[in-house]
Each structure stands twice: as structure tokens, then as C-alpha cells.
Amino acid sequence: MAPVHWGTQAGRFRMTIPWGLLLSLLIYSAVSDIRCPEKAPSHGDCSYVSRSVSKGGSVNISLSTSETTLDLCKQNGSTLKWDPIYSFVKGVPTKLSSYFKERVSVSRGSFMVENVSQGAGGNYVFQDSNRKCLAQIALTVVGSSGSPSQSSAHQKG
Where is the signal peptide (predicted)? Predict the structure, then answer.
């Protein structure tokens, strides 16, 4: 791509920034401003969904929203704080967490996780760009024995 030039008048400093770098900086500044909730939203603040899924299975949850920018936060089972894990802009995911191993997608108003691992269990919050809660999801992953493999999916007030 062609570089961007600033200050091209005679005798002025000329700075060149490649378009890719400029775009990367803009995306980073947009997604680095994600703030997850301080505490779990009340059930009346947004829709609440509780699902169980077998390890290795998939889950598809309707978000019932037309928002094009969504942030996904997951509650840390140890600290109970909410961590940003993904941001979606027009369906394109940006992974924000190195510890979260799941691949998730948002398409046509639905949240999908495929090939679910034990680490996927827990509490999630989807919020829009104004930090308004759109959905709270409690996901329990069931192992091959049929018992829940992670108990952090139970709601803590």
C-alpha cells in the first residue's frame, strides 16, 4: 500500500507512515479501550442465558442485536474480575487475551464456540461500544463422565 505523507511543504520535516501500520495503530487504540464490567450485571440489565455443552461440542447462542461492535468479557474464576477476551467489529474478531484458548465467532447476531474445551466454562458478558450489557452467558462444560467440568459457570452476585 502507498505510504501516508505529512508536512510536504518545502523546508519541513517529512514523515512517512505505511497504511498497514496506521491501520494497526487505529485498531489497537480502538480495542485497547475495552473496559469490562466491575461486577456481574443484574439479570434485569440484559438477557441471561445458561447453557451446558459437552467437551468437544459446540454452542450457538443468539444475541438478538444488530450492533456491529461487540466486546466479550469473561469472568476470571479465581479473582471474579471480568477480563476482556475478544472484540468484534463487523464480525471480525480481535483476540485480546493470551490465556483464553477458545476460538469464538459472531455471525448474523449469534455467538458461537466450536470444539469447546474444559477452559471455556464460565461466565461471559457481551457489551456494545457504549459498555451497555447485551447478554450475560453462563456456560458449563460437561466432561465425558456427564458431570460439569467447571463450576465457575454458576452465577455470583
Answer: 1-32
